[in-house]
Amino acid sequence: MPEPAPAQGGAGVLFQLLRDGRARTRAELALTTGLARSTVASRIDALLACGLVGPAGEATSSGGRPPSRFAFNPAVRVVLAVDIGATHVIVAVTDLSGEVLAEQRLAQDVAAGPEAVLDRVLAEGLSLLKAAGRAAGDVAGVGIGLPGPVEHATGRPVKPPIMPGWDGFDVVAYVRRSLPVPVLVDNDVNIMALGERTAHWPEHSNFLFIKVATGIGSGIISSGTLQRGANGTAGDLGHVRVPRGDDVLCRCGNYGCLEAMASGPALAAELNRQGVAAAKGSDVLRLVAQGNLQAIQVLRQAGRDVGDVLATVVNLLNPSVIVIGGSLGQVGEHLMAGVREVVYRRSLPLATAHLRISLSVAGDRTAILGASQMVTQHVLSPAAVEATLQAAGQGLLGRNHAHG
């Protein structure tokens, strides 16, 4: 299929064509864009000078000197990608294509507060940069996922229920004291949706990612765009009411919330009521792996409860793919069976005719991939690339060095 020609624009627009990693000649780029060869040549020279594009060998010659080919150079800079969960932190260094260069997972309680958690993240990030053979000056940006509502425009958490001390905290300013680069912060489920779709479902523009863990939430991608809503709370499935939960009190103060019925702590509490010892979600996973029938039945019912809510969402948003992730998704066949049972029974036939419900492929790397993608979408946008080039090599990506 021929490539769509970008709108007329500068080197930043031309660069978007090269972001797929495929090498092209100046002549191919001129043909695709309709720009003059001289215009393409000058823009490629600018991209070469800042390191975003590098030489990629020579094309086959039709007589005379073989033409040079060029491709995106994702190694020119790196991204610090951070997934902060309720009880863990994952920190990774990726290149600009999202390839993980170094990674570390740490046990860390988010309730320790923003300074303690972010100090540990920054210390680990700088250590990983060194391990990857990179310097702090190589960082193009920092992407952070948090386990609570986030005002994306400012990066400030908004009344996060499991994050005492974080409400309104200026995460961006705090991180930029150590790393003066763009810092982007979002809800963890939103970046999971970005990461999973980019890595494994790029051809699907209407996509839902459902995280089932200590909390329950969803990342919504509609017409290819992540939907955050007016205040950043779009996709908060955990506090949608489940029909059978009239007498189950949720920590939010309401009765019958999905999170109070189907999250890891809720399932552990239900098993305790049945006489099976379980303190948290990981105990439920262990019991399921051991073949405990009560744990399997509880997990399958959780799938049905999630399916009850998703059936409405499917009718409303008509996604083509729903991906189930989070810690409870790791023993996915039982949870998935319950979800499918209800969604396919309760949703409209037209909405489910081509609907795929799948387990996460990226697993516990989903949020890291999404945090990296969130940063690269920002720093490699046409406007950002133009600003870099106009800064004469002093901007965000503008040092002429390439690695690897």
Question: Would you summarize the structure shown here?
Answer:
The chain is α/β, with parallel strands linked by helices and 404 residues long.
Task: Kindly describe this structure.
This protein has helices at 11-18, 26-33, 37-50, 114-131, 171-176, 188-200, 258-262, 264-273, 281-289, 293-317, 332-346, 349-352, 366-379, 382-390; strands spanning 24-25, 53-58, 68-72, 78-84, 88-95, 100-107, 139-146, 150-151, 156-157, 183-187, 207-212, 216-222, 225-227, 321-325, 356-359. With 404 residues, it is of the alpha/beta class. The two termini are 31 Å apart. The chain has a 5-stranded mixed β-sheet with strand order 6-5-4-7-10, sandwiched between helices. The protein folds into 3 domains: 11-72, Winged helix-like DNA-binding domain superfamily/Winged helix DNA-binding domain (Arc Repressor Mutant, subunit A), CATH 1.10.10.10; 76-181 and 369-380, ATPase, nucleotide binding domain (Nucleotidyltransferase, domain 5), CATH 3.30.420; 193-361, ATPase, nucleotide binding domain (Nucleotidyltransferase, domain 5), CATH 3.30.420.40. It contains 14 helices and 15 strands. Helix content is 39%, strand content 19%. Mean pLDDT is 90; it is low at 1-7 and 394-404.
Name the CATH architecture of the largest domain.
2-Layer Sandwich
CATH superfamily of the largest domain, called what? ATPase, nucleotide binding domain
Mean pLDDT: 90
List SSEs in N-to-C order. Answer: HEHHEEEEEHEEEHEHEEEHHHHEHHEHH
Shape: globular
Structural class: alpha/beta
Domains (count): 3
Strand order of the largest sheet: 6-5-4-7-10
**What's the total count of β strands?**
15
N/C terminus separation:
31 Å
